[in-house]
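User: I would dearly like some help making sense of a protein record. This is the protein in question:
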Amino acid sequence: MFTRRRMLLAGAAALGAAGTAGLIVAGSDEEGARIAAHAPAPVPGPQARQAPLKSSAFRLQPLTGGAPPHSAPRKLKVRTEPIFRIPEHGRQMMLTFDDGPNPDYTPHILDTLAKHGVRAMFFLCGECVEVNPHLVARMAEDGHVVGNHTWTHPLLTTLDRSEIKSEMERTSHIIEKFYGDLPQWFRAPYGAWNKATFQLGAEMGMEPMAWTIDTTDWDTPGTDVIIDRVESGAAPGVVILSHDAGGDRSQTVEAIQEWLPYLLDSGYHLTVPNRRV
């Protein structure tokens, strides 16, 4: 669907987002640090050995019909850069998946995450949500956090403000319908950000989230390459970028079955942001 994924990541290059380790949380004001904060650091040991997750204590039930009028988002401070890392509370990392949901690959990734008791972030495209609402409902039930990744995955820096707003707003509304809550995070396709994306995201109650490590799975480099990028780049505070749609993601499905237990056995805790209320 997204052959344009191979386009030059002009916006990402300008911000140094793709595959760049060692960055800090952008705009690290007190409010931003609080929003990006996570649960207290766990005791050492694989997360898979913790008690089973209880989604009912974490997430609203998804709305599958007869949704009420759209919720009014809480407006946020406008940032000038996205967030590249999470606070380093112990050996915490965050897993993120872009472009889905996809019926061929997303269920396998969700199965692997469930097997190991891990939550992740999924940045969803509205057009994919529209045809796969059951997968969004499952994300809600499993306690995953979903974010807005626009409706059609365009290069936002080539659009005018009204077009960008439409891409973001439509996606937030359909996510609310099937996930049960408005998304509180936004990721620009290709990592291409501009002033309008930051302003509109803040108006819609969404913080801008980038990444620290790009697995390059969008380029189908081979399962071993993906595994090596994750395992060699693992470090406290790292945000990993993978994809569950946008092309053949069979390598991603295979790779996560290897690198996820490796991270857990290495004592890493895979976390997601706290929900703002």
Notes: Strands lie at 92-98, 121-124, 145-148, 185-186, 207-208, 213-214, 239-243, 269-270. Confidence is low (pLDDT under 50) at residues 1-68. DSSP finds nine helices and eight strands in the chain. Residues 52 and 159 are 44 Å apart (CA to CA).
